[in-house]
Amino acid sequence: MLAMLGICLTLAPLVPGLIWVLAPAVNLATLLELVRDGQFYSAALSTLGSAVGSTLLALLSASLITIWIYPGKGWSLAQRQLPLFLAFPHIAFAIGIAFLVAPSGWLARGMASALEWSSPPQWITIRDPYAISLTITMAIKETWFLLWIMATLLGEQAISRQITLANSLGYSRRQVWTTALLPQLLPRMGWPLVAVLAYSLSVVDMAIILGPSTPPTLAVLSWQWLSDPDDMTQAKGSAAALCLILMLGLLILSGRLVWWGVKKFYRNPKGIRRKGKVFKSHSLLGIPVFVPGWLSLTILLLWSMAGGWFFPKLLPASLSLKSFNNADFEPMFTAFWIGVATMLIALPLTLAWLEWGSRKHHGWLYAPLILPSLPIAAAQYHVLLAVNLDSTAVGVVWSHLTWTFPYMLLVLVGPYYSFDARYLCTAQALGHSRLQACLKIKWPMLIRPILAAMAVGFAVSVAQYLPTLFSGGGRFATVTTEAVALSAGGNRRVLAVQSLLQTALPFCAFMLAIGLTAWYVRNRQGLK
Hints:
The chain is mainly α. It has a single domain (2-264, 286-527), classed as Orthogonal Bundle (MetI-like fold), CATH 1.10.3720. It has helices spanning 2-10, 14-22, 28-36, 40-69, 73-86, 90-101, 106-115, 132-154, 157-168, 173-188, 190-202, 205-210, 218-226, 231-265, 291-305, 322-325, 330-356, 367-370, 373-386, 393-417, 421-429, 434-445, 447-462, 466-472, 479-486, 492-520. Helix 4 (40-69) runs parallel beside helix 8 (132-154), helix 6 packs across helix 26 and helix 20 (393-417) runs antiparallel to helix 23. The longest helix has 35 residues, at 231-265. 41% of the residues are buried. The model has no long low-confidence stretch (mean pLDDT 84).
């Protein structure tokens, strides 16, 4: 009952909200106004290019890295770094990349001494008209997510046995992956790839920082139109949001057709051992994918403590904590309590659904992850307006819950369904009710994935930009909204401080989850 009530309160109101948002788009006059707008076609092309390009680059990078380093020490090293970079917010990473590749950024400063530059070069490396910087940055960030998905799939014993068997038969690493493993893994990565594609299509915060501005991407353009007081402009924004959903549907259909063609024309491998170089696992091959993340963190830290730092100096003239002393910590505290409240509400809903909900029909709960976020955030705003909860703390927490709950479910569903049911049966046979058996036996034994899901839920809430902006009505300033607002200004020190504060919140949540897990299992050998 709790599970169904929570789902109804969390996701069901989105249906009428989406109808309210998209209804103005189903109008011939609105559609004509949209296609006549001079910005529409360029915005749509840059959106398609950045979304498809970043998704394909992320999939290719994750696949190649896995082929190169799995199994081996390199894979273990990569897995140890993944939690840190999964906790790295998209906006903070984008700001760090901007500090790196901007005309006056760290890379240009490194080249300045060798090339004798006295002023920044006149090149366009961020906010370029072709969205190249946005595409590459999103590809790097989503590569870490896809590596995490692959790590989950590769942890299965059947995959390990197939690798051992193929190696014993003399096949090279490349043949094992291309003929046996990737054909099994790629279909199971379908929904994560859809989630990556949906995010790339509707991303607003990263597009504001790195994307083109004249015109911007279609998601940013739709957001600007939806925020306009004019009714026709808002209707154009609704039509643009509908275009994002249609784009996603067409891209999913195209992907399925491509996969159908691959299966039809590349099947029944002959099993011939081909001569060639045998790839050896090496720990260094997995490092390049994490280099941009480490460089981004480093440059944010340097700018946050920089005194005088003028081009072409590679390092600041002095370092101090003055920027931190003068920093506004209120957005961090706001993001903290919103994240904690959202996570604490989502946790019992997640556990209740996994324990008492339907196993066969919970796929639709992932809808917020596989649909563009912009129309969903706009739908939330219309729902809150209807019930007079817009610009309230309750409305903001509810809007975050729409994304936090599915992510926590996604993290916890695998370990939860693989739990040995005999423990629960034994507890019930000894007289415990199902709830008591869960409280005393099942959930304590699942403490590791539960704490991981809590950390992920908190990190997802901290990173929310559009829901906070729409539902909060601009009254709730978090580190995420502050970072995007400051990105348009010129004070890099203040921007770096807010970006680091945004990064610190999910990082501390992950470290706390790891620490609490280690403390809880210290005297429980079976849980280690």
